[in-house]
Design a protein that fits this description.
The structure holds 2 protein chains of 2 kinds.
Chain A lengths: L3 E2 L10 H12 L10 H21 L6 E4 L2 H15 L6 E5 L4 H12 L3 E5 L9 H7 L4 E5 L13 H11 L2 E5 L11 H4 L3 E5 L10 E5 L14 H4 L7 H39 L3 E3 L10 E6 L4 H10 L2 E2 L15 H5 L4 H5 L1 E5 L6 H20 L2 H9 L9
Helix pairs in contact in A: 1-9, 2-9, 3-4, 9-13, 10-13
Chain B lengths: L2 E4 L4 H15 L9 E7 L27 H14 L3 E5 L1 H17 L6 H20 L4 E3 L4 E5 L6 E5 L16 H5 L1 E2 L7 H11 L20 H11 L8 E5 L4 E5 L22 E6 L4 E5 L5 E12 L8 E7 L7 E8 L3 E11 L6 E6 L2 E11 L1
Parallel strand pairs in B: 1-2, 1-4, 2-3, 4-7, 8-11
Antiparallel strand pairs in B: 5-6, 6-17, 8-9, 10-11, 12-15, 12-17, 13-14, 13-16, 14-15, 16-17
Helix pairs in contact in B: 1-2, 1-6, 3-4
Chain lengths: ~400, ~375
């Protein structure tokens, strides 16, 4: 059975050239990058080259890149690091209702320790209004954390404006860019961020490695204590092969960003348009223009998202109902709730996220299979049968 | 022609899955697989943490009960071993609404409910069947010890006990409709428990040595009273009323702290010594009374049954002789069953039977065949 992978926001396939770049550091250049000898130096060289590659992707300085175990650690390190280093009087954080659990759970943990947190809301478009961030800010605010692109909807947040607000009020600004790095230009100067998280496995790099951009001069308490690695910012023997892979992935992303972005946007648009025209009672969730090029999140009325994902998987197509992190949980996606979907709409929402290795043929095959799957599910839904009898279904697309 | 097997992580459903996988492996055609394994996530064990005991809580997890992480792990391991696709589906909301809530309410109303029968009717053969249809499976299977036969003359499906008389699970399946029976398979119906375990071992299934679980799946401690208390506390339900313990002739003998703590035939827990042993004869939720008497008072013959489901149809106002069980482990006894209008039935045992309990299922058998059954509503 042909398998088609439309879940690139959950993770991406490792690019062959990235794997090749990592291989020598797993087999031959196995030294500890902190060791003085030749073996250590070889490893160190790989690490530093990768650091430069990541810095170039972000328009940052090498010295401002810290390697971590992934996006989650980067977010934790940024948020906890800033708040814990801040003076006692400055204990307020502003973030949003649509952040990834890596940010939200960290915020909740801070609340348990007496830090107050404001979760700025979004409208139906799934885009934060900078004015709402501005009005949430207080004298004691020490950090603003707003993601660059939302993992479920793909909507892109207005970081430049928020960065300006942060700078005016002298507040640190962190962004979880895990879903935007490699899909959109991410320029830390343009965005005005002080801290930024990214994760290798979202840009065809390996899992278990990420980076945190830390603007020079930022005062941050480290999350991990131990050796002096990463300029005392992150202890622990470097995952050299992983770092090298991240570097290679970052370089490949930067080299092909524009053309790959256009290519995948065209595939996504064709998939989205194809679904909207061949299946009735479907709507796109979130803003369709301020969006990463690879994602479409759709609500299919009269079916259960869980059943849809399983039915599609049994026919070889991989997609998801929301973020991978929330699968198996009872509550509807907090992101979909935040944009105003009712629980039954949220439960009927599916995310298709395309990537570097998807092709026109993938989209064709999916469009062949999907409408029948939808019909199959709807035919078993008691609600759909009532509707189908009483009204004429037609291709409806709302955005 | 594909089939979805409900996998609980236990030996029975795992062996049933193995049998199906073998049967269908030679029929593999087309672009989607023949057998799909599914576990229903029905109840979150962490929801009432006070029931979990030591070692559970924020970091810990419950094991050994329905829907624990261990059960899903086991079911998944078996599915991987059998090389069949496997998914977990979340039916927690539906399970709470159609099984847990009625369970608690039944006890508060002075009944002794059996959630397992309700679960079969509402969840396993309704919701699960619906999910199976959604994903494209045409039939479902479970590890129940029961058999389905089709009568070639009438086209109707018959439900029979399994071959293993000590594991009569057909008792819990009395609520199944013809439509449900037509879409179901019970791979274990012709086997005994020993044979099933032997087969599990012979096939090398990961769960071959796993012990059976005996209690209600969502009651981790085995104490339904603790569960009800914890659930009511979580729901901010007012404390269930205390009331009087009275004799069969109406004399007040003492006090109780909630009729849900009692069941007909119960001897312990009355907290009083009156000479001869006292048994709970009846529970009156309207008067909040527990009626006690001696052992003889427990023996009755006539009772009403509501919401009767007929697997073999009986027209209203007809009567039939049947072998009737009033509890899962009741051996059953000869009775006359009279259909009344409105899905009610009156049953009269030829010999009085001990502790006929409202809320339990009365199931009517004709030899091995389950003719029908319903909920005991009133002892006459």
């Amino acid at each position: 059975m042909q398998r088609i992978y439309f879940d690139n926001n959950a993770t991406t396939p490792l690019a062959p050239e990235v794997f090749e770049s990592m291989r020598p550091y797993m087999l031959e250049d196995y030294g500890n990058a902190s060791s003085i000898h030749w073996f250590g130096q070889r490893a160190k060289a790989g690490v530093e080259r990768a650091r430069e590659q990541v810095a170039q992707l972000l328009n940052a300085r090498s010295s401002e890149i810290v390697f971590t175990s992934g996006g989650t650690e980067s977010d934790n390190a940024a948020i906890l690091g800033i708040v814990e280093a801040a003076r006692a009087e400055r204990k307020h954080v502003v973030t949003t209702a649509i952040e990834h659990p890596a940010v939200l759970s960290t915020a909740k943990a801070l609340e348990k320790r007496g830090v107050s947190v404001t979760y700025v809301r979004v409208g139906a478009r799934g885009v934060i209004d900078p004015a709402d961030v501005a009005s949430a800010v207080r004298p004691e605010t020490v950090l603003i954390s707003v993601m660059h692109a939302n993992n479920e909807l793909g909507t892109v947040q207005p970081l430049e404006e928020i960065g300006r607000i942060a700078r005016e009020r002298d507040i640190y600004f962190h962004s979880d860019a895990v879903q935007s790095a490699g899909k959109l230009p991410v320029d830390v100067e343009k965005l005005g961020v002080d801290l930024l998280a990214l994760s290798a496995h979202k840009l065809n790099g390996p899992k278990g490695i990420g980076a945190l951009y830390v603007r020079k001069g930022t005062i941050l308490r480290p999350l991990l204590h131990g050796g002096h690695h990463e300029r005392d910012r992150r202890a622990g023997t470097e995952n050299v092969a992983g770092i090298v892979g991240l570097g290679a992935a970052a370089e490949a992303a930067r080299a092909h960003l524009r053309e790959e972005s256009d290519r995948v946007a065209a595939l996504r648009d064709r998939l989205e348009a194809g679904i909207l025209s061949s299946v009735p009672y479907v709507a796109v969730n979130g803003d369709r223009t301020r969006r990463v090029p690879n994602t479409t999140n759709l609500s299919f009325e009269y079916l259960e998202g869980e059943g849809f994902v399983i039915a599609m998987d049994l026919r070889g197509i991989a997609c998801s109902t929301g973020s991978a992190c929330s699968s198996g949980s009872l509550e509807p996606s907090h992101v979909l709730s935040a944009i105003g979907l009712r629980p039954e709409q949220a439960r009927a929402s599916i995310r298709f996220s395309l990537g570097r290795f998807n092709t026109e043929e993938d989209v064709d095959a999916a469009l062949q299979i999907l409408p029948a799957v939808v019909e199959q599910l709807r035919s078993v839904s008691p609600h759909y049968r009532k509707e189908a009898v009483s009204s004429q279904p037609s291709a409806v697309s709302k955005s | 022609m594909s089939i979805a097997i409900a996998m609980s992580g236990g030996v029975d459903s795992s062996t049933a899955a193995a049998l199906l996988a073998e049967e269908h492996s030679t029929n593999r055609t087309g672009s989607s697989p023949e057998v799909v394994g599914l576990t229903m996530q029905l109840w979150n064990q962490r929801r009432l943490p006070q029931l979990l005991g030591e070692g559970a809580g924020e970091g810990g997890h419950a094991s050994g009960r329905c829907c624990s992480l261990d059960d899903v792990y086991d079911a998944r391991a078996v599915a991987n071993f059998l090389n069949i696709p496997y998914y977990v589906i979340n039916l927690e909301k539906q399970f709470e609404a159609t099984v847990v809530r009625p369970f608690v309410e039944g006890y508060l109303a002075g009944e002794t409910p059996i959630p397992c029968s309700l679960c079969n009717t509402e969840i396993k053969f309704a919701q699960f069947l619906n999910t199976a249809r959604q994903i494209g499976a045409e039939r479902i299977a479970t590890g129940h010890y029961a058999r389905i036969r089709r009568d070639p003359e009438t086209g109707r499906h018959l439900l029979l006990r399994g071959v293993d008389r000590s594991k009569d699970q057909a008792y819990f399946l009395f609520g199944l409709t013809q439509e449900q029976l037509a879409q179901t398979e019970f791979p274990l119906g012709e086997m005994t428990k020993q044979q099933v375990r032997a087969l599990a071992r012979a096939r090398g299934l990961p769960v071959a040595e796993k012990p059976d679980s005996q209690e209600i799946c969502f009651v981790p401690t085995g104490s339904y009273r603790q569960f009800i208390d914890a659930y009511l506390a979580e729901q901010n339900h007012p404390h269930s009323p205390a009331g009087e313990v009275v004799s069969t002739d109406g004399r007040v003998l003492g006090e109780h702290h909630g009729i849900q703590n009692f069941t007909v035939g119960q001897r312990k827990g009355l907290g009083m010594a009156v000479g001869a042993p006292l048994y709970v004869i009846a529970l009156d939720s309207a008067k909040k009374q527990v009626v006690v008497g001696d052992d003889r008072d427990l023996f009755r013959s006539r009772f009403r049954v509501r919401e009767v489901n007929w697997i073999r149809p009986l027209a209203p106002r007809d009567a039939v002789d049947a072998h009737v069980k009033i509890r899962h482990n009741h051996p059953g006894a000869a009775a006359r069953v009279e259909a009344h209008p409105g899905a009610e039935v009156q049953v009269e045992f030829l010999e009085p039977q001990r502790a006929i309990t409202p809320g339990q299922a009365a199931v009517f058998y004709d030899d091995d065949e389950v003719v029908g059954g319903g909920w005991i509503s009133q002892v006459l």
